[in-house]
Amino acid sequence: MENPFELILEKLNGIEKAIAKLNTVEPIVAANHPMNIKDLSTYIKMSRSSIYKMTSLNDIPHYKSGRKLYFKKHEIDEWIFSNRIKTNDDIKKEALKYINKKESEGKLLE
């Protein structure tokens, strides 16, 4: 039977290595500096091939200089948050607003 303390030390060493890997991730470039494909991939946690596909379809805001692609962080943030999904409450409010508008238009026509 293995020594339980050795097993614990082994697991702790594994945890330390995993934490060290997490701490070595390169920081994202400052907001006012352009990101390259590698930076963007890290930032939005998406594969480079998916990003290349989106750029070829012009689905993502980007810049091209020669063969290199660049991205502005604030434009990427706007792009990510531009397709907000409406909540049920948002939809109910819009429906009520529409009904009230139609009712008031109907009263004006009478």
UniProtKB/TrEMBL annotation:
Highest taxon of source: Bacteria
Ranges for domain Helix-turn-helix: 35-80
InterPro entries, per database record: DNA-bd_dom_put_sf, HTH_17, SinI_DNA-bd
Protein name (Swiss-Prot/TrEMBL): Helix-turn-helix domain-containing protein
Species the sequence originates in: Flavobacterium azizsancarii
Taxonomic lineage: Bacteria, Pseudomonadati, Bacteroidota, Flavobacteriia, Flavobacteriales
